[in-house]
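Lecture 7, part B: from sequences to assemblies.

Below are the input chains for today's worked example.
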Amino acid sequence: MNTRFLDACWGKPVDRTPVWLMRQAGRYLPEYMAVRSKCTFLELCKTPELAAEVTIQPVDILGVDAAILFSDILTPVEPMGMKLDFVPGPVFENPIRSMADVDKLRIPQMEQDVPYVLETLKILRRELASKVPLIGFGGAPFTLACYMVEGKGSKDFAQIKRMMYTAPEVYGALMDKITTMSMEYLNAQIKAGAQCIQIFDTWGGILSPADYERYILPYTTTLINGLNRVETPVIHFVKGAATMLPIVQKAGGDVMGLDWHVNLGTARDILGSAMGVQGNLDPTVLYATREIIEREVKRVLDENADRPGHIFNLGHGILPTVPPENAKFMVECVHRLSQK
Amino acid sequence: MNTRFLDACWGKPVDRTPVWLMRQAGRYLPEYMAVRSKCTFLELCKTPELAAEVTIQPVDILGVDAAILFSDILTPVEPMGMKLDFVPGPVFENPIRSMADVDKLRIPQMEQDVPYVLETLKILRRELASKVPLIGFGGAPFTLACYMVEGKGSKDFAQIKRMMYTAPEVYGALMDKITTMSMEYLNAQIKAGAQCIQIFDTWGGILSPADYERYILPYTTTLINGLNRVETPVIHFVKGAATMLPIVQKAGGDVMGLDWHVNLGTARDILGSAMGVQGNLDPTVLYATREIIEREVKRVLDENADRPGHIFNLGHGILPTVPPENAKFMVECVHRLSQK
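Predicted structure of the full complex, as structure tokens:
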């Protein structure tokens, strides 16, 4: 078993910098498209054998140091009582707008309501046993709330912010319920075999630092504190958080995921040595020539300056039109340039 | 004449914090919609009497301390030889993809090619003489290049970044040409009566700090250095720049526009006392109750802590569905809470 990734999560020294890519199992891989062509996206998430197959693909094809469960952050939201569709972006037929809507939401029984997620993890632990560690994941409460209240993607998130500002009791009740659900969902993933948990707060960066502290931080803190993380490190990724790292850091977790809008060295100086970092190459660099991919990988490694506790990654998910050979070359560069 | 705004641009003391709103002449105002209902958006930009009328509306309705020319950042790009349409977002029929495309671009003769812009400014200076100062504006070279290369809005800006990384000579030639055009365009605005220039780099924040420094900074620096700004302060607004303020500051200018993702006091500490700041309320706060609008205005003013050189503004354009009375209340709060 390659333990480079978990060692780095715990801040231990490693022989080379571990690397994986957010959305590494996805549309840019022809092998993924071959599986995906036979079913819908949701069917793929709900069929353990297929979900496990696409999860493992990038481990074999790219040589990454960790696998991440193939699923969607909205998977556990559907059994809360929300009709979910992908067209191709996620759409909820019945967005949350009132206390009555919140009251109707139920906390799923994970073994009954998302058995396919837990089954996928179990298959993966067996199949990955001699290879790499397995990452489970979930959306942060605020990001899930954004989708549940907006009902779909949004440019300005007016609905959720309006709720936050004008109906704080509805917002609070919703966030409490999502936090409870997320805690049970992620603990079920740990029980089923996830060796690390990444929390994705894709929309946490849409608020000002003061509003993040008021409207998001308490819930994410409760969530992270409630995870069975003695043996399971937690990576907390808040996109757009680089201007408020000291606040986001208060939520806890072992590793901070960084997008590409910050110098990685500056972020480490702010976070201190007790917390690791994950990131942070601009995903579009994978459209570049090999020369520039190598230059940019080197720049990120140089910014880290050999400090322990760095996991290399993109600053956001890999883009669907990236040539797979460029992703593979990036992984090779990370391993070659970071070799001790 | 209310000189509060210009005084603050120069870092001089003021009786109350000046305030205006990005996109203050726009769709949220019924008075604007009444004018707009009679013509297309581009016709409105190109008809000086109408453009001047909607420019002045928020001065009278909201009581703001500055007027900003009603126009679009793409106005001077059209006469470079690019067919522009709004559907309703901007679309170029013939996006730039090669050196041949760049070679075909011409530098407009401002008096002949955008006479309506200059005429609008002249009308406005007469009509605003006893009221408030007049701001002219333009897009930063990179933001204009984004639209010209992508051809329309984009989520990941893959086309422009691919050009930047794989065809740097095409990218450089395009940026040079846009920089020259912008310099002539903004100097023509100053000559026609603009008393301050705001440069909008809406997409400058999509790059990493290292890439900003390499691919954007040289061009914006050339542009700002080339402006006739002895009597005309320059506000440089780069959305998403809060993680790289020391780099962006090198471009020059008198005031840094800030989005809402940064604590305004922290930004001032980084920028030092020689540069003013403009911002930075989250635009969605205008959906909130009066109590919360007032709380948030106070927070931003408190973060500034009475330092000279602060112009109050939103951190991005006002949203089209904001109630005008909330914008008016925000302006009142700024004036009331900042009164010396």
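Note for the exam: The two ends of chain A are 19 Å apart (CA to CA). Keep this in mind when comparing with the next example.
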